[in-house]
Write a structure and sequence with these properties.
Elements lengths: L1 E6 L4 E8 L3 E9 L1 H5 L6 H23 L8 E7 L3 H18 L2 E6 H12 L7 E6 L4 E8 L2 E7 L5 H11 L6 H10 L20 H14 L5 H27 L3 E5 L6 H13 L3 E3 L11 H12 L4 E2 L19
Parallel strand pairs: 1-4, 4-5, 6-9, 9-10
Antiparallel strand pairs: 1-2, 2-3, 5-11, 6-7, 7-8
Helix pairs in contact: 2-3, 4-10, 5-6, 5-7, 6-8, 8-9
Bound molecules: 5'-O-[(R)-(carboxyoxy)(hydroxy)phosphoryl]adenosine and zinc ion.
């Protein structure tokens, strides 16, 4: 079964063809990073406009690369939330028109479910149950993945998402956008010599605003004496330790021996290494997506769509003409 996945929740226009949830025939990502860079972050209105001008080309490219025609499409999966509403609406409108004209079923996909599903592509033997550490620009969650379409969020950030904290630190240090990879690049050249606060709670929640503010205060205090590489290393280290400590504790308490990383920040080398070391120490197995499936892409959406499709979480488009963007779409909810 071939699924066309469509992802437009933020600043990447992406379309993919995936067979049975795990085999990627094409995955085209048209990034708008260069456009938003000069504003220091994503400008929603500009993102929506670029999705409108890009989407038809990206669909053509995805079908051509997969060497299939519109007639070969079995169903369509599309991100319906969470995300920027105007941006989501472009992908959803395109997906609805496509489903209508081809008379194919449509699967509304939760963006985070997509990030988790990226692991099914990169790790063909991976099956639920497992614990997922979901770390992106908008989310920081520990999710108990009970089955392919059954999720329980057991911990989440009480303020900033971890990717957001990376981006703000990068902005404070004038490193550029998106900040995560740039902070990480500096961190590789430094040592974690600055002491930064690590907020802990009794449950599995996170807080990253304290550490982000501590970085800003240090920069304001030390001015040109600040060692950017050491500060980035200290920030990255502390954040990765908090993320991994909470996740391992959740695994111990829930008696779950498999963990996966998901979301843009799962591309972080330090985080990948630390989760591997700590998993091994506890006798657990860690999985992560290949780097190309960490940040936003449509292959992960088509993969998540497959598991929803086989679990009857799909619609005849003529019965779901009202399908819309759902900015507060809950993980595991049937839209
Ligand atoms: O999942 P994603 O592409 O978009 C959202 O759903 O938010 O994640 C983007 C986030 C950005 O905040 C970016 O700075 C961060 O992922 N990121 C990283 C790395 N690569 C991307 N953060 C730390 N280290 C990286 N290597
Ligand atoms: Zn994302």
């Amino acid at each position: 079964m071939k699924c066309v996945g469509i992802e437009t929740s933020c600043d990447e226009t992406s379309v993919s063809v995936v067979e049975d949830g795990r085999v990627v025939l094409s995955n085209i990502v048209s990034s708008q990073i260069d456009i938003h860079k000069k504003f220091g972050g994503v400008v929603p209105e500009i993102a929506s406009r670029h999705h409108v001008s890009n989407i038809a080309y990206v669909v053509d490219d995805a079908l051509n690369t997969a060497n299939i025609s519109f007639d070969d499409i079995d169903y369509i999966g599309v991100t319906c939330g969470p995300g920027l509403v105007g941006a989501l609406l472009v992908g959803i409108s395109y997906a609805k028109s496509l489903a209508y004209s081809l008379n194919k079923e449509i699967v509304p996909v939760h963006h985070i479910e997509g990030h988790i599903a990226a692991n099914y592509i990169s790790n063909p033997d991976l099956k639920p149950p497992f614990m997922a550490l979901v770390v992106s620009g908008g989310h920081s969650h520990i999710v108990h993945v009970k089955d392919y379409t059954k999720f329980e969020i057991i911990g989440k950030t009480r303020d900033d998402a971890v990717g957001e904290a990376f981006d703000k630190v990068a902005r404070t240090l004038n490193l550029g956008y998106p900040g995560g990879p740039l902070v990480s690049e500096e961190a590789d050249k430094g040592q974690a010599l600055y002491s930064l606060p690590k907020t802990k709670f009794d449950n599995y929640d996170f807080s990253f605003s304290g550490i982000k503010t501590a970085v800003i205060n240090l920069v304001n205090k030390e001015k040109e004496n600040i060692n950017i590489q050491n500060l980035c290393a200290s920030f990255e280290n502390a954040v990765c330790e908090i993320l991994v400590e909470n996740t391992i504790r959740a695994m111990q308490d829930y008696n779950i021996g498999t963990v996966v990383l998901a979301g843009g920040v799962s591309a972080n080398k330090k985080l990948r290494k630390l989760i591997e070391i700590e998993s091994k120490r506890n006798g657990y197995t860690a999985y992560m997506p290949e780097l190309k499936y960490c940040t936003d892409n449509a292959a992960m959406i088509a993969s998540a769509a497959y598991f929803n499709y086989i679990n009857e979480r799909r619609y005849n488009i003529k019965e779901r003409l009202d399908l819309n963007a759902y900015p507060s779409f809950k993980l595991g909810e049937k839209m």
